[in-house]
């Protein structure tokens, strides 16, 4: 059972993640994890903070000589910006006078609900944790999961399919490798150069008008075996678990699998993926993959395909109407340094979050405490399925 | 902490749900729970099974003289159809010869992934549990949750906003009471008589052609306090938990909150719900509710609004192409008695599932072991928020 | 992951257990489960209720033709005594007048803490659930676990090592089979005929004086592989999990592993089990088993040995001093039908509870969804350990 | 819901704990937490490591200006000894040559089971995490819990009642304050000067002979309300949860509540705590506290009293017989720097672990997200109990 907790405030000294349940014997490449953190920081439309931070994990537990030992892995990411916030974010009661209390909640953000729930007077006490800066820790967690899945030939890729009003197409038949190459070199993580230009123009326009943009990302997972997740109890269905993880991302407002909402509008005969059999490979095949790779809460063995919608960022440079929580007088929302559009980052975040949930379901199904044991169990199952 | 397990096969003797964590002193009206079960069984387009079953809970624990005692509540629903299945679904090894093994998996269903994962030879061993019949137990669980919420003025309503190609509008300004009245009297649980006629025609046509229909349902929860859920850790965000529960429903393929996927396509200035203050009622107000009632993983105090997309049923009377799992020869999917369209039921199911998650978050926030204690804690908080 | 919930009041209609996470393909013999239930009902010193109840499970889910399907298994045990309690334990508000309210809490029982916590006025609302009658459901759960473990050669045995002032010895070198035979035929589940006579005399004396007796039981688990449980995180240590389960038993006041409390009083050189190696069997050996089969929160591969102390029953026929919760006047505790001594039953209960926790750790380590898969994974691991 | 994960190897760079679920508005005094860490490091019989480490928490999340914000709190404790281990404990694969592989497992330690389970070749990969150094993180977690409980007048105290063959008495009628004073100034955390001298002599003797000593500690919690924990479901019983936490401590072999194992040997009439009523204070009273403060898995409102037995340390300077895991030849167990006796530390560790579980049950019962809200809920409940 893989589980994790993240901790850390946006302008606190460090972000921390403890990941529990990683088996022993996996080679973990920190450069790749840092590579995913770097991918998270890229994208046209990001603000000034991305210039300050160059996120890197510092592993302080669970790894020795580049390998997992079975013990919990801790990743720490330093917030370089903390140097500018040391007094305002101090843990020391003596610094209380330095607070610069924030009192104008931003519509769309956790600010208002947060201070009411937790009975706090400084919105900063909420926004620091609610900030999407937390996703840095989640990307580290999910980047590790990608390396847990890699020895079994399972890989995840996140990319952008819409930003603001502009959808970005993926040409039919594009391989995952090609999709990865295209989106990785795109400034907005799309596979569609025409859309890219339109999106950049829209971002520029929003920047001028002090506005923000959301979008839709898609994650594909390839190389999956049949049978991750389960139909037997509500909370074990893989779609539900993925949805939980994805809708816990800051600004996420919707999630869909395969044809998703469109599936509600067409007929069964048009939707369901008919079944064939390939005697050479000894495996059941599908003529289509409208399900997005899950049926009955389990992987079908086809590629998993899930999309997540993110609303525009809540911090507008031309702020929205709000109310000062102290005076109850009308005001505009606080301006906290922010981006115009973070959807290219969101694609990376979603990719890693999906990888974590898949790794979790994978380890549950195959048990085992070491790479050798899991590999043996896994191949035993693959052969069992082939000779079914 | 509210938690539950459901159990039971579609044609087994009984469906069972144990609900743990219900505080003491709540009046539980079984007639209302049975009323919700009856609502689940209604709807134009349901098949023959609905004529056989008239679901009623039999409470076998946790209730005494109509009140909860704090102990786990068990609801049992008898499957009347079991009389016809006693031998085929027998627990007794002596009856193994009666099995009538099912070998042709239905595309869209758990059938194929299930038998491969669990290494079973009779698809019935999977389909019996994967069947949406399980939602009977979940409706019982959620109907109970509605009664936990009722003393605090919180209510949930599920209804249909699209079936197949036909969207069903809700007239602007329709009150929840009116919406409830309209959808309750509709044969397809919509508030739009013109859509109703079109939907019924489409169902009739599908029935003739042996096809099935999906759709989209919406759930509204009214009367919520601000601050259920939390932003502090990924798995405590209310949206994520709701999404988990909803995407664990059979045939669910997507979920969205408030403007949902649309939120990804418009600008921040158009989306976020500006904040005001009503000095008379001593509360913060919103000029709109595009968020669907959550910000930062917490309730805002506005109505919660969530939509779920369900794919068409996987059992087609004109079955899709499949493969016999024994012979590996092409075949058509098994025909198991089924409906043409179950979306009106899905709205009731989603309503109760949402109620359960809300009740769970509610009890977590307010603690307490008795109605008296929770009521005191709750009103203390409401006053705290008003005098914030 | 194996998990379960139990439900049901002592004089309610039924006791219920749902067990989730049982893999598919296991042969489950209900007669054996009923056999364990019968073992729980035996023992010199039991009261009248045992004459009324002849507990048998009715499986209502998860089993088909004697085999598990991977879906949750529900066991229902009818309370025959309910016939005498139908009105007093009715779920129907109309029967409220029949309550015969209990107002005198028994020292030692959940009665007083329960009514204060849950704000209830009738102690029956607490005692019905707090009653050790609940262990019937737990024995059913654990008896199932024994059958999950059996195909892997793992077996558990519980017996009595002390009742009241009388310890019962086990002759050195007694095999587990012999121990099972001896204790099974003993009226008080001991392997020591002289102690048996003394215990029976003490029970008789207690019965006369209206008093009750506790005792100490031991559970041995044989056939364990090395490496169940884990040292890596506090809540995964096997001893802790076993202790949680055992100290959740009614009347349990202490638990110890191997030498237990004695281990705190001797020196390291006298205690720790030295390590050898048997080249023929290719396995590490121990010269002793003072640890009771766990080191670092993991099984060592030696027999697990755990002891549990149970206090005397709280219902005395010559009741203790108490206070009427309504009048606050002095009174004696309520007399509810009860036994003089239930320690022979406690040994069976502890045995099955231990079996459940072991099965849970076993399934976690070996993963898999079917007997075939788990068997393959298990034997792969055993060979890995041998060729380490 | 309070939860936490710890991470970190004994000679790794840092120990880390993330504590999730701490409400907002609590004043947290780091000096007190460091005080508890210092208490953990004291005690006659500790080895050289205690001279190197002067443990102090560095808070990196969740606290601002000395107060909790509701977000997860992270404590980091630097391992000063890491400076001496940097190459041998490096996360960098390039340092693999520096390993100095450990191949001789110590009887009593996780060494052997660990390498077999996790399929590792260097025992250090196990012992680093299995080491009781991990309890530093747990003490930090529990020291925080003590500060969560303090505003409600609840306090915990751990002390030693036996080391090796020597029991240490507590004079009847000793107040908790006095007990704290006495044990705090004792070199071995006992309240019995005569025993202290004997214990020190025994430690000295063990040191000479290369042996180790275990012992028994007791924890008292005062100021508890009635009704923490619950009788309704097995895993919610407070005793079980405490037992889980305590038996997850390194070297713990037994736990008992109140009279504990003795309770199994006497009669009900001698054991159970009779009930009275104090009309002035409007509360139920007890004539004794043999139960140790729990009945039915709930606090009774009397002081909680729990004892834990710890076996002697597994690292002996005159090592026990073992086998080299590579060669399978007989050898003596590895010598890793260690103590002769750590029981005085164990008392502090048990104290803080108990405090954490109590705080967890406390927050569950009273709900709430801020000190103000919890205080209001708590006092409401206390008054409800008084006017019951």
Question: If you had to describe this structure to a student in words, what would you say it looks like?
Answer:
The structure is a homotetramer of 388-residue chains. The first copy, chain A, is of the alpha+beta class and 388 residues long. Chain A has a single domain, classed as Chorismate synthase AroC (Chorismate synthase, AroC fold, 4-Layer Sandwich), CATH 3.60.150.10. Helix content of chain A is 33%, strand content 21%. The first copy, chain A, has a 5-stranded antiparallel β-sheet. Chain A has a 4-stranded antiparallel β-sheet with strand order 1-2-7-4, covered by helices on one side. Chain A has a 3-stranded antiparallel β-sheet with strand order 3-6-5, with no helix packed on it. In chain A, helix 1 runs antiparallel to helix 10. The longest helix of chain A has 24 residues. The model of chain A has no long low-confidence stretch (mean pLDDT 96). Chains A and B meet through helix 3, helix 4, helix 8, strand 11 and helix 9 of A and helix 3, helix 4, helix 8, strand 11 and helix 9 of B. Strand 11 of chain A pairs antiparallel with strand 11 of chain B.
Structural class of chain A: alpha+beta
Instruction: Indicate the CATH class of chain A.
Output: Alpha Beta
Q: Helical residue percent of chain A?
A: 25-40%
Q: Please compute the radius of gyration of chain A using only Cα atoms.
A: 22 Å
E-strand count of chain A: 18
Largest interface: A-B, 111 and 112 residues
What is the H/E string of chain A?
A: EEEHHEEEEHHHEEHHEHEHEEEEEEEHH
